[in-house]
Design a protein that fits this description.
By secondary structure, the chain is of the alpha+beta class. Helix content is 25%, strand content 25%. It contains 19 helices and 33 strands. Strands 3-6-1-13-10-11-12 form a 7-stranded mixed beta sheet. A 5-stranded mixed beta sheet has the order 8-17-15-14-9, with helices on both faces. A hairpin with a 5-residue loop joins β29 and β30. α7 crosses α8, α11 packs parallel to α18 and α14 packs parallel to α15. It is globular. It starts with 13 loop residues before the first helix and ends with a helix. The structure holds dioxothiomolybdenum(VI) ion. The site of dioxothiomolybdenum(VI) ion has 11 residues, from loops.
């Protein structure tokens, strides 16, 4: 029975959130809590020669100043610092030794009775360094870029460029129409609203409860056990709510290590809250230079592509994703080659940021497609339809589903695309130039192994638990919806427990894979509950279900009922009373079906309108339509919010966001949200989200994720609209007014 799945349901945690009852990592209080503040390096590379902690230690209320010289023991092998999603390399170890690997690296931690004392005392710590020459510019170092190394781990193997097809060089040389250009996406930072924080509760005997801001409590749990040599049962990591992660909380972050270090050193509960500027050292979307060459044949369709990406990483880890191959999932062409090289800089290791690789790669690809359409004198949408591929070109296999044509059709219709006049600068509204642009989006539809426990009580309530996080996306809500339907109970009878490392296994919440994984996980466990209820129901005198097989019954309206004869039913309460059980508990692991014969992706079509002030070059994105095909939508309200948020972020990527570095200092110059620009209310106008019907049988519930697809392609749609408005092609993000004037 599906009463809740597919309906627009308000967040079950909404009231807790708006009333402040929902607690975040820095909001858990215990008596005698100490507060810690970081001292961070002011050089990008070198070695600490001396740390003078005298002035800080003399402040009343300061409990300790921890540095690499006096910290408690930590593991000395790389393996201990590797987390579930660590790239190849040697992970950064907070306060481990005197080496400085990046500007803003924690070099000391001041622990005090209050946060104010800690912060003041931290400002008094004097650190002397021996500097070494550093490099922080992708353009400065691009000649040193190395092809990505053969992957050391199986996960990393997913992130190598696809193999070449056909004879790309010959095809490009012979192309009737060729477009070749270089595109740039700068470093961008996640800037979630909630500050990174860890509150470590120190219990007698040294057991720790760590309230941490993270996208993966079990990832942090295993990591902390490794780094501090603690037994798993002595550490519990909790993250019941998270005020945005977007990838920045996939790996354990340094505030958790520092808080645990301090708690162990002082044998006392400790909280560390990072400041906004300190969060700029946690990770970022890597800067990316892409060259794309497209060749079209005389018939006006795509024949060849060469896609070459250069991205940045740190000196100590090789972070990269599969940036170059997205074209092969969208368009049909016989000849292709891909290359990916890495530049190592004296910066922290980059990390995943919403739709990692796809968001920047599709800015380049979809800008290039727009440029090819101009060169071919085709409508941009028409070109995409001509090149449409019904197969994954890399592995020559079909899709489990791909309703992208329908995204194009419904998106174009809702936008009014047919009224577009092709010439740049041909549409106006008073002193504003109007531009209409479009782009395609694509993301992966992934499912991961997950374990779900359900405890059903005779009063018709169920508790559903899993260690997954809800990073703000609505996981509590969709879990409750699915459980209510699968157990045939009212939504309000379901309680959800998540974000606790002691709960059944879940990987990090990322990759848009949790909704599909946990929903199907709930379905599996609910089936086991149903089977047990049927066993009990058969024992009811004259049971109407005496001969029913498990697959013939379903749970609906608090009853177990025959599918074929719904009047044959036994209430959950009666079945449990009969069996004299007041609680049924099941815990099951659900693994994704192995299906390598088909490609699994979510798709979108984005249409954007910009108005550009002709004299001032000010760009406003006045309308966006995003049509998304992502399988069955569990909750149009929360899913719609995900896409809306992705579109807003895409506007930021297009027009505002850029982390700037002073390369002489190797330091980020706008490490704050006053100077790191993001779209604000006045930048966001009319956004329409369409979910296109799509049936997919890759998993029993037919779900794909929607966390990341929303941002993909948006920046290109906006930049293409700016070109249509002004005739100026901006290939380096963000599209700021100085690039449009002159
Ligand atoms: Mo997402 S970048 O995997 O949190």
């Amino acid at each position: 029975m599906q009463k809740y799945i597919g309906t627009a349901t308000s967040r079950v945690d909404g009231i807790a959130k708006v009333t402040g009852a929902a607690k975040y990592a820095a909001e858990f209080n215990v008596p005698n809590l100490a507060h810690a503040s970081l001292v961070c390096s002011t050089i990008a590379k070198g070695r600490i020669t001396r740390i003078d902690t005298g002035a800080a230690t003399n402040i009343k209320g300061v409990l300790a100043v921890l540095t690499h010289e006096n910290r408690p023991p930590m593991a000395d092998k790389d393996q201990a610092y590797k987390d579930d999603v660590a790239p190849d390399g040697s992970p950064y170890r907070p306060l481990y030794d005197g080496k400085v690997l990046f500007d803003g690296q924690p070099v000391a931690l001041v622990v005090a009775e209050t946060a104010e004392i800690a912060r003041h005392a931290a400002s008094l710590v004097r650190v002397e360094y021996e500097k070494e020459p550093h490099v922080t510019s992708i353009y400065g170092e691009r000649d040193t870029a190395d092809p990505i190394k053969p992957p050391a781990s199986p996960t990393e193997a997913l992130f190598v460029p696809p193999k070449a097809r056909g004879t790309p060089d010959r095809a490009l040389a012979a192309a009737a129409v060729r477009h070749e250009a270089e595109y740039y996406v700068p470093i961008e930072h996640h800037n979630p609203m909630e500050l990174y924080a860890s509150t470590v509760i120190y219990e007698a005997g040294g057991k720790l409860t760590v309230y941490d801001k993270t996208q993966g409590v079990q990832n942090v749990h295993a990591y902390l056990c490794g780094v501090f040599g603690m037994r798993p049962e002595d550490v519990r990591v909790m993250s019941p709510y998270m005020g945005g992660g977007f990838g920045s909380g996939l790996r354990p972050q340094f505030q958790a290590v520092l808080a645990v270090l301090a708690a162990r050193a002082l044998q006392r509960s400790v909280r560390v809250v990072l400041t906004r500027p300190q969060m700029y050292a946690l990770g970022y979307r890597p800067a990316m230079i892409q060259s794309i060459a497209l060749g079209a044949n005389s018939g006006g369709t795509l024949d060849a592509i060469a896609h070459d990406a250069v991205t940045i990483t740190s000196q100590y880890e090789q972070f990269h994703r599969q940036e170059t191959g997205w074209s092969g999932l969208l368009y049909k062409y016989a000849n292709a080659k891909y290359a990916h090289r890495l530049v190592q800089l004296d910066l922290p290791t980059p990390c995943d940021m919403r739709a990692p690789s796809a968001a920047p790669a599709l800015f380049a690809l979809e800008s290039a497609m727009d440029e090819l359409a101009v060169a071919l004198k085709h409508d941009p949408l028409e070109l995409r339809l001509r090149c449409y591929s019904d197969r994954d070109q890399h592995d020559d296999r079909p899709y489990s589903s791909k309703a992208l044509r329908e995204c194009y059709r419904q998106g174009a219709e809702a936008f009014g695309w047919t009224k577009r006049t092709p010439e740049p600068r041909s549409m106006r509204d008073g002193s504003d130039l109007i531009g209409w642009g479009m782009a395609t989006g694509v993301w992966e539809a992934l499912q991961v192994p997950i374990t779900v426990r359900i405890a059903l009580t005779a009063n018709g309530h169920a508790e559903v638990s899993c260690a997954t996080s809800d990073i703000g996306t609505g996981t509590y809500t969709i879990m409750a919806q699915v459980a209510a339907d699968m157990l045939g109970l009212p939504l309000e009878n379901i309680s959800i427990k998540l974000g606790d490392s002691s709960l059944p296994q879940s990987p990090v919440e990322g990759g848009s894979w949790i909704a599909v994984s946990v929903a199907n996980g709930i379905a599996t466990t609910a089936q086991a509950i149903r089977d047990e209820l049927l066993h009990l129901a058969k024992q009811v005198p004259n049971s109407p279900l005496a001969h029913a097989a498990p697959e013939d019954v379903l749970l609906a309206d608090s009853k177990l009922a025959s599918r074929s004869t719904p009047s044959h039913a036994v209430s959950i309460a009666d079945a449990m009373r009969r069996g004299a059980v007041d609680r049924i508990e099941r815990e099951m692991t659900t693994n994704p079906a192995e299906d390598h014969t088909r490609a699994h992706n979510a798709h979108s079509a984005i249409f954007a309108e910009v108005k550009v002030d002709e004299q001032l070059g000010v760009v406003r994105v006045t309308r966006v339509v995003s049509a998304v095909a992502a399988g069955r939508i569990l909750n149009p309200k929360t899913a719609g919010s995900q896409i809306l948020g992705g579109v807003v972020w895409g506007i930021g990527m297009a027009l505002h966001e850029e982390t700037t570095i002073d390369h002489r200092l190797g330091r980020i110059m706008n490490a704050n949200i006053a100077e790191y620009h993001v779209p604000v209310h006045a930048d966001v106008h009319d956004i329409k989200v369409i979910f296109v019907d799509e049936t997919d049988d890759s998993n029993p519930l037919g779900i794909k994720g929607v966390g990341e697809i929303g941002i993909v392609g948006v920046a290109a749609a906006v930049a293409n609209a700016v070109y249509h408005a002004t005739g100026k092609r901006v290939r380096d993000l963000p599209v700021t007014l100085d690039k449009l004037l002159g």
